[in-house]
Design goal:
The protein is about 20% helix and about 35% strand. By secondary structure, it is an alpha+beta fold. The chain binds zinc ion (2 copies). This is DUF177 domain-containing protein.
Length: about 180
């Protein structure tokens, strides 16, 4: 949701509390899309400190479904994030993006809450997601989730070319 902050920006000393819903259904990054399992209202306090500067403080409570790196089962991954930002409005939007190395969520009149949330989740996105530490993954032959039980596939013969050679060898011996 985009909120209009033009009045706040033009009134030094003004401070406003917001509760804003997250509107996007999923967090998207690198061509992947992770659906929100939980999203609470984003609580934000935005204060015009005077001197063309605003502070944003708030809290994001949400959870995403992220596939396990090994078995691809969805793992509910919570995000409880504190937001503390100071935005220097004297800088151009472009300079600010370069400075913060993030996509701009704010301009001279509005603040894009979904974009702010996306930026924060990206910073805190886990490098690795496992459904459990000893996840057994999936069988590379039949695709069964091995946490749910053995499928009975022979996973010893890793390379099909090797097993072909072994078969030839076996036939040769039988002759
Ligand atoms: Zn797993
Ligand atoms: Zn299998």
């Amino acid at each position: 949701m985009i909120i209009n902050i033009s009045e706040l920006l033009s009134t030094p000393g003004k401070s406003v509390d917001y509760q804003i819903p997250i509107e996007m259904d999923a967090f998207c990054v690198g061509g992947e899309s992770y659906p929100f399992i939980k999203k609470e209202m984003v609580r934000l306090n935005i204060t015009n400190t005077g001197d063309r500067e605003i502070t944003i403080s708030g809290r994001i409570e949400a959870a995403l479904a992220i596939p396990c790196d090994r078995c691809l089962e969805e793992v509910v991954t919570p995000f409880s994030l504190d937001v503390e930002k100071t935005v220097d409005l004297k800088m151009s939007d472009e300079d600010r993006i370069n400075d913060l190395d993030e996509t701009s969520y704010i301009d001279h009149s509005s603040l894009d809450v979904d974009q702010l949330v996306s930026n924060e989740i990206l910073i805190h996105f886990p490098m690795k997601t496992l459904c459990r530490e000893d996840c057994k993954g999936i069988c590379f032959k039949c695709g069964q989730n091995l946490n749910l039980g053995e499928c009975g596939c022979d996973r010893e013969s890793l390379d099909p070319r090797m097993s072909a050679i072994r078969d030839i060898f076996k036939n040769f011996k039988e002759v």
